[in-house]
Amino acid sequence: MKILPISKSIASKIIFLIIVISTLQARAQNTYIPIESKDNAMVLQVSPEKYLNTVYYGNKLSDKNEYASIAQTYRINRTTSEYNSAYTSSGTTNLLEPAISVTHADGNKSLDLKYVDHTVTKINDDVNLVSIRLKDSVYDFEVTLNYQTYFNENVTEQWSVIKHHEKKDVVLNKYASANLYLQAGSYWLKHYHGDWAKEMRPEEEQLTHGIKILDSKLGARADLFQPPVFMVSLNKPAGEDNGEVLYGNLEWSGNFRIDLEVDPSNNLRLIAGINNYAAEYTLKPNVEFATPKFVYTLTDKGKGEASRNLQSWARKYKIVDGNGPRLTLLNNWESTYFNFNEDKLAAILKDTKTLGVDLFLLDDGWFGNKYPRNDDHAGLGDWEVNKTKLPDGIAFLTKTAREEGVKFGIWIEPEMVNPKSELYEKHPDWVVKQPQRPEYYMRNQLVLDLSNPKVQDFVYGIADNLFTKNPELAYIKWDCNSIMYNAYSAYETHQSNFYTDYVKGLYRVLDRLRAKYPKVPMMLCSGGGGRVDYGALQYFTEYWPSDNTEPLERIFIQWEYSYFYPALASSNHVTDWGKQPIKFRTDVAMMGKLGFDVVISKLKSEDLAFCQQAVNTYKQFSEAIWHGDQYRLQSPWDNDVASVMYVDSTKGSAIMFNYLINTRYGTGTHLPIRLKGLDPNKSYTVSEINLYPGNRSSVANATFTGKFLMTVGVNPDVNAGRTSVLIGVQEKK
Ligand code: GLA
User: Fold this and answer.
1) What number does the ligand 1 atom closest to the CA of 547 have?
2) Which of 66, 343, 639, 713 has an alpha carbon within 20 to 30 A of 223's alpha carbon?
3) What DSSP string runs through 528-596?
């Protein structure tokens, strides 16, 4: 048979046809964007219609080609459009809780975001950024979704950048940072509530169909009643060492909102971002609006592993100087309150030296002259040294500190003002309040309007002046004691931008401060833990978990914080709260960043000797506590004895903390407690440390393999006579 030569015109027609067919095929096919870390993959799918959906988030697969087969194995309801949308828009066919909703310049409220393109940027060997551009086909409006993964930590930070080129302003009615999608048989949410001195009270429950919202509307000190941290276990509540669990934290120090919706197909939609309550944001054309980051980590190895992921990410990438040391300190808040003078403080500076800690922290009460800060009714805002209490100024304190060989730090609360202050008299328009309504106070104070650049300059100047005038100033405690009532800004043109611009203004101030003083230690305080989140913590070296320093309470409070934040950031002070002996109080404070707030000169000599020795023990094990891995061995919620340990990165040194929680007759450690995180093949010497002077240990010094310690364990012999026991574990070489 003769094969006829194909004419040129037929050949070109065939080529054209092949191109059309392959284009149609490409259109009809899904494309996949896997976002991978060491153990996990989030797989996004671009549908033939160019919608971006999440088809998978879990353990990563060895063969990337198999990502395409995942979607068909799941049930996904499509009745009201894409339940698994990677960023749900609203006003068209999508009738679900949106991640974003807008009012366009012409008043139209529809948004239909479709995939345009994406880029993958390798930031370094550990960090990767995937940016995916979505655009509306009718309006010139676009959103870029950013997924920054930290490979070794299995952590992702996700945020959105929103912009438009419409003729006039667009209003963002909702503008979330992230919209996740998880698939499991059931979902168990652990979240937190609280109040002053009651921070981080957990609740864990199964999510039912409908939307559960975690949120805050407090403006400043926004985490007072509910912090933006939570965890979701898949299929069953995860244990410490087993189970699938996702941790999340919105990096935002203002109103937040987290929607958790079990959809009709039993999948979980999770939307996290700034709370849109009274906060529709007016966005000018050509201006980028970046949402805060939502950080999350997923593991199938339980709550302990998830917390270690987050802690190590935080030390490496988020909190200031996370790999550096921390200063032990003596604070005067509970020993003097507002009542001090130069002599008293000079004596405390001497005590700082006697105790052996690094720094003296002068708390509230050092400022205000026309309205002296002698209690919490007056003076806030007037950051001039009080001449009666400190006639020789701060210079006297830095000089005395230098002479004693210790460092000096100071308390400020720069975002706030007492109506009884010169600041309030001079700048009433700088204050957040409703012009036509009576003022309403928390702790007799009001919040300054940080959306106003002049106020930002003022607040920046408070810290900057202190550092400039006192170059030896080594530490700042930055407090924030009021929520926002009567939210209104005399500066803003669009009132509903205020809640968001307040936090952006605060971050602008802190950015400037950190640019000039990159490493100086600063404590994030908010009448306790009213502002602990990674948005704020990127500027601070540590936080104040709670004004509640009763040590039994602190065991629970610190336990819960530790799921999300590393120990070196937790400021734990020994105070006179609680009836426990000084050893118990100090041992509890050592599980973090150690400080004291007691009258040193009034301590019994044995108590003082114990504290001095504890400071040394703490320094000896600080590498494990500050930069090591934390393992929760026995929960205070379920056991008579709570137990926690920290292992340094070489697995050469570890410290175990044990406390009697239930003081009923005969309670204690009847069984050994298994250690974790050691090297099974190493030998370790185990001994009781931090004994009260004159006491002998009932735990014999002995050497064991790591395998023994992690299989059989150690019995710290905690009982009514030994309510707190510390065990040192040192590699025997
Ligand atoms: C807040 C802080 C305390 C102390 C006082 C000072 O309550 O949490 O530690 O600094 O303010 O007024």
Assistant:
1) 8
2) 639
3) TBTT-SHHHHTT-SEE---S---HHHHHHHHHHHTTTS-GGGBEEEE-S-SSS-HHHHHHHHTSSEEEE
Q: Which of 331, 361, 363 to mutate to test the pocket of ligand 1 (most atoms within 8 A of CB)?
A: 363
Task: Name the residue with the closest Cα to ligand 1, atom 3.
Answer: 527
The sign one gets for the Cα dihedral 241, 681, 621, 536 is negative
Q: What is the pTM of this model?
A: 0.95
How much distance in Å is there from the Cα of 479 to the middle of ligand 1? 7
Name the token pair of 679: 């090297």
296: tokens are 């999350």
Domains of the chain listed by start with CATH number: 16-318 (2.70.98.60), 329-628 (3.20.20.70), 634-731 (2.60.40.1180)
Is 117:96 a contact under the CB 8 Å cutoff? no
Q: Cα(614)–Cα(731) distance, rounded to whole angstroms?
A: 21
Q: Is the CB of 527 under 6 A from ligand 1?
A: yes
pLDDT digits (tens, 9 = 90+) for 569-615: 999 999 999 999 999 999 999 999 999 999 999 999 999 999 999 99
For atom 1 of ligand 1, the residue with the nearest CA is 527
Confidence bin at 28 (pLDDT 50/70/90): low
- Determine the distance separating the centroid of ligand 1 and the alpha carbon of 303, expressed in angstroms: 32
User: Which residues have a Cβ under 8 Å from the Cβ of 245 and sit 6 or more positions away?
Assistant: 231, 232, 233, 234, 238, 298, 299, 302, 303, 306
Q: What is the CA radius of gyration of the chain?
A: 28
Inform me whether the pLDDT recorded for 16 exceeds 80: no
239 pLDDT higher than 80: yes
Ligand 1 in reach of 450 Cβ (< 6 A): no
- Probe residue for ligand 1, chosen from 367, 479, 482, 575 as the CB with the greatest number of ligand atoms within 8 Å: 479
